[in-house]
Every structure is written in C-alpha cells, then in structure tokens.
Amino acid sequence: METSPLAPGTFINISFDLLKPGVIDYTCPQVAKKTRRYSGVRCRIFQREPHAVWVSKARKIKEQSIWKQKEKHIMQWKTKITELLGCRYPILQGAMERIGTWSFAASVAAAGAHGTITASISRTPEKLRDDIRRCKDATSGSFGVNLSIGICPQIDKMLEVCIEEKVPLETSVYKPDALAQRIKESGLPWIHKSARVKDAIHAQDLGVDAIILVGSEGAGIKNPEQLPTMTTILWGVRKLTVPVIAAGGIGDARGLPGALALGAEGVTMGSAFMTTAECPINDQFKEKMLGLGLDQPEFRKRVLTPAPFDRNAASRPAPADVDWSDAASFSVTGIDRVLSVKALIQRITADAEELVNGWQFLKK
Fold first, then answer.
1. CA-CA distance, 119 to 125, in Å (whole number)?
2. What is the pLDDT of residues 226-270, one digit of tens each?
3. CA-CA distance, 70 to 302, in Å (whole number)?
4. Are 24 and 46 in contact (CB under 8 A)?
5. Where do runs of H (alpha helix) occur along the chain?
6. Most CB atoms closer than 10 Å: which of 28, 103, 175, 184?
7. Which residues have CB under 8 Å from 42's CB, separation 6+?
C-alpha cells in the first residue's frame, strides 16, 4: 500500500496492539523520527530501526504513557499507616541487609511509598547520619531507618542518630526491649517487625505504633514457628490493637488489596523492590529472579524451609558475586520485567484500583 511521507512533529494514532512490521511500514516508512499521540500522551517514536528494537522502545513508551494516565488515582489510599508515616501509598520498603542503601530508599520514598535505610549497611553512626541527610536531600518523601537487633553494629549509637535526625524507626530480628524506653521517649513513629503473633503482642506491650507481620512466603530471616501470610495476618488483626502491616510474598496488584481486605493497614515489600532498576544488585540476578516460578521445587523449598539464620554471615559484607536470586520470596513470581521503582508502585496501585473497582460483589 502506498503511503505519503509524514513530516516530523505529525500526530497520528495507532494501537499498540498493532505493533507488527507491516503496520509500522504503513504508518511511517520514510520518516526517521516523529512525535505521536497515544491515549492523549505525547511520545517520541523512532523509525528506521530493526523491528525488535522498535518494538522494545515502543513498549517502553507505552509503559510510560500508561503510568502517566494511571497516576490519576481513583482511590485515596488513606490508612492508619499512611497517616502514621506520611506516605502516599500504604507500601513500605522491606529492610534489606547489604543492599538497603539511602539512594534505594530515596527512590521508594520519591515514588510515594515509605523507603527504608538499613542501618547495618552504614556500619558507623557517622555514616548513618550522612546517609539519612543524603536521603533527605534527595527526596521529600517518607522514609525511615531499620535497626536489625543482633546485626546492626553500635545499635545504641545508631538509635541516637535516628532520634537526632527525627526519622521513623523500624526494629526487627529480635525483641526490642533494650531499645523500647529510649524510642518511646523520642516520640518518633516506631514499627516492629515480627514473624510470630506472640512476639508482636509483646512488642505492642512495649509501646510500638504498628507491627509488620511476616508470613512464611516471604524471604529473609525466618522462624521455625512462622505461619503462612494469610493465616498470620488474620490471626494478628484479631489479637493486636495497633495497625498491622502485612508482609511475605506480596508484590502485585492483588496482594495489596488482599492484605487490606484481611485487615492490614499496609504492606511491606522486599523482594519485589529487588527486581527494580534502582536496586543496587547485578541485573543478571534480577532477570534470574523474574525466571523463578512457584512450580519449581527448589525455589519452594528454599523459601518455605530456609537454612538456619547465621547472624555472623548477615553482618559481613556481601561478596561481589553473591546470587541475590537466592534471597527472593514468592512475590517475584508476579512480576514480569525489571521496572523502575516508580513504575512498579504505579503498576501495583493503579491495577489494584482497577481490580477493586471491578469487584461486582461490592456493588449494589
């Protein structure tokens, strides 16, 4: 079919569902570069390139276009956790030993979720103070600091830095009794992460503002008595009076409203954020994570029956060639490609809104 040359700057409309070589040739065979409109969003399209390259760029443009539109949320996402922390979405970044850097936390905070600096990475109180200030300079979003008891060095001094810098606190791994009084005196928001409901009840008695309950589908440090996420959250919201944050295998648009429906006030995601472009691990391991499946016996075994926790290993610097896919939870099975932190959060929240809006059983 004959076509006329299109001048650069011409606007056309074409469905991304029609990205086939013939359609591309028909659309603009003679123009090297032009702009075009997709669902009302102006984009740049590159022509005269191999089809595979063109389609790859087109998909990226489509993704950016969709996220721009989906930023216009229907839901407000107001929960007790967004009110406590001041974040836009009830999504928290899980603490990650060795890779929970200030820049990673800033990316999460800037996207509307709650970022987490893992203090053990900083190693010293002076470095932690610098990391916190760098994060503050990088974003006006919500972020806090995780203090992993038994792993974080100089934890008392690290706590004092957090108090002086006035950042929300998260404690984890072991009981926070030794830190509780000082944290409560500071008046800062305090969240404790537990694997068992009975430990969560104990932390509540110490005065925490919220509890992260982690089910067995999650990664990280495990407890032999840990139960599946759904069971743990249902039990936790019955027994606790403080807000509960669900964790353990959550990382997509179904997991977020599902956790809220169970009674949680938010979710914590660790492995899902490890697949993002901003995560400071090698891209080959991100791709390896995305290839994991629930039908793989070794993957299921590693997540559900992990090796005993080695405190000494956790406190050592990670070797450069560490395979981070071995640290992934079931949540990565719901992610199909490496996205930016912002794109992942937009995808989860926008798709969750669409999902909830389509629930017929909620309609009269």
1. 9
2. 999 999 999 999 999 999 999 999 999 999 999 999 999 999 999
3. 36
4. no
5. 21-27, 51-70, 80-85, 102-110, 119-122, 125-138, 155-165, 177-186, 197-206, 229-239, 255-262, 271-274, 283-290, 297-304, 311-314, 341-357
6. 28
7. 35, 36
